[in-house]
Amino acid sequence: MYLDEDADEDVALRIVEDGKARKPGACNATECVLVHEAAAARLLPALVARLVAASVEVRGCERTKALVPTVVAATPADFGREFLDRVIAVRVVPNLDEAIAHIDRFGSGHTEAIVTRSYANGQRFLREIDASCVLINASTRFNDGGELGLGAEIGISTSKLHAYGPMGAIHLTTAKWIVYGEGETRG
């Protein structure tokens, strides 16, 4: 999840908490939070306090640790890791470009989210992030078959379809879910 420069604090705190603390072992749990450097001093102390109050261990980069010294120092292995537990990695990034680069390198292709008030940044995030579900101002927990109206899931894929044997045009179709929100959570 990326918290943009202009992220609404209440929305960001609720969405991150829901994405991580509500069901930390789910495949749609938030595992890493990227915070724009211009918003870090404003958002990180409250975010860390809220996560710690929800029994989540916060592992932060050096810049995160400088702002909130109580966080555990993150290791390079913490980024791109699926904790499936009450643990989350936090990294301060200089801008949206760096957030997208981080997600390109470490993302799972499953679920990515942005918290922003900027229509342009939200649309750019939707265009440039390669994931099965991309959310704006909504919890990652919405990437779920039932929540998306598909009924019970029989499986989930983070890979791209490929041609294997004879296939018509209909067989080459896949979906990228896009969710617009105003701070919704599943809690």
Task: Walk me through the topology.
Blueprint: E1 2-3, H1 9-21, E2 32-36, H2 37-53, E3 57-60, H3 62-67, E4 72-73, E5 87-93, H4 96-106, E6 111-115, H5 119-128, E7 133-138, E8 177-184
Parallel strand pairs: 1-2, 1-6, 2-5, 3-4, 3-5, 6-7, 7-8
Outline the structure in words:
- With 187 residues, the protein is of the alpha/beta class.
- The chain has one domain: Aldehyde Dehydrogenase, Chain A, domain 2 (3-Layer(aba) Sandwich), CATH 3.40.309.
- It has helices at 9-21, 37-53, 62-67, 96-106, 119-128; strands at residues 2-3, 32-36, 57-60, 72-73, 87-93, 111-115, 133-138, 177-184.
- The protein has an eight-stranded parallel sheet.
- Helix 1 (9-21) crosses helix 2 (37-53).
- The protein is globular.
Query: What ranges have pLDDT less than 50 throughout 5 or more consecutive residues?
Result: 163-167
Q: Which range does the strand content fall in?
A: 15-25%
Q: What count of structural domains?
A: 1
Our count of helices gives 5
Instruction: Write the H/E string, N to C.
Output: EHEHEHEEHEHEE
Question: Might you state the CATH topology name?
Answer: Aldehyde Dehydrogenase, Chain A, domain 2
The number of strands is: 8
Mean pLDDT: 90
Main sheet properties = 8 strands, parallel
The level-1 CATH class: Alpha Beta
State the CATH superfamily name.
Aldehyde Dehydrogenase, Chain A, domain 2
Task: Give a quick summary of the entry.
With 187 residues, this protein is an alpha/beta fold. It is built from 5 helices and 8 strands, in the order βαβαβαββαβαββ.
